Amino acid sequence: MRSGKSRLLIVALWLLGAKVGWAQDGLWLAHVDSLWQQGAFEEALALLDDSLQRNPNAAELLWRRSRLRVELGLRARDKERRRELYRLGLEDARAAIAADSLNSRAYVAAAIAAGRLALVSDPRDKVERARQIRAYIDRALALDPNDDIAYHLRGRWHYEVATLNFFERTLVRLIYGGLPDASLEEAAEDFRRALALRERVVHHLELGRTLLRLGDREGAVHELERALALPPSEPDDTTYQEEARRLLARIR
To answer: Whole-structure pTM over 0.85, yes or no?
Structure first.
């Protein structure tokens, strides 16, 4: 928990920033991102809410608020509250796209929020969102082919679609007549692309999980061990590492 002096400093910085237009420059956004990195989601969200009252169509603020709402949704105990936060996150990301259709991070945020919303929805809604999520990811990569998170999301898309159950596959055929091709091999390749751009705990975790589904136990163990070896650098890294630890215990 932050000290009283720390909170006063943040308020003072915000007041100073408001006077000089700091909410629109890199320093202010870096401050918000720093709060996210520290897991201070509520504080970062309050600052963004305040900024958005004066700048309601600022794409850089909107996609960041989307990301924060998803983070809070991940930690919500109540399923309905979780779904509501993901829905609001998707609304923010779509608003960011409307404000700046060339902002790749807005499409990444939309794909993340839509993906999380799909995971807490019924099978039909999950299937209906699959094309939407892929479209967001493809647009993000077209705008920024060096975004490791976008490659990770495409890998997750391949993984989720390739592992749909029988009922979900039946819905896909009835609703769409099918979905774009997806495979675990393509999922693994996208996770490798993500790792080539930036090494993250979550990239190793998902590549390890995918290799395990492909029957490559040795490769899966290697990736899961790499996930555990990296020092946590993002708010969810300890959660990802605990998941990697459970997977390793299961296959050893």
So the answer is: yes
